[in-house]
Amino acid sequence: MYKMQLTLLLAAILLVGALTVPSFAQTIISSSNSSLVGQNLSSTGLNITFGPGQVNYTYIPISGQISFDPNNYNNVTSVTQMTIYARNSAGIDTKTNPAANGTFSMMVPGNGTFSIYVIPAKLDYLDSSTNETYSIIYPAESKPYLVNVTDSGVTGIVIPTQTLQTGLQMNATPMPPSVTAAASPTATPTPGFTAVAALIIVGIVAAIAYKKK
What we know:
By secondary structure, this protein is of the alpha+beta class. The chain contains two helices and ten strands; from the N terminus they run αββββββββββα.
């Protein structure tokens, strides 16, 4: 009786284990240098998902060029500080930093339409000859640059930019508008003063005439 109970317990444990393992299927997002790429892992008993569908991605190369001017006010001194992202239709991002000459390359999972965007997406500049400020706008996550990637990949991508005029930078403290100095006032006797002087003169003349009589 004891042996039968032990056998039934072991059988129940094995049954639960067999039913439970498939429910813990793993989702793995593989990087371009992953050792899993190209391998058939179905024999492991795990449901490996590399993206839409239960298949391994074939990584495809894309490459191109990004323009850059280091004379900005954003403390971005080298194009290598910028980050280029490629996002596929499943929302999987692949990112890279350009080389010092502005060229870049990366391996993306599968073909299809990719959204390319850059961070930072805006750099600010000053045209010293005109003193006008402007910005260079790169594709942003909200407004990406779309690229169609074929089975063989794509080369020669030129990430577009847009120049946006932003205003005028002052190079000196503005002075207040000039004011014309008023003419120096000329003193003129008031009517009251003239009347008083006339009365004094009349009085003096009358007094002299009275003394002569």
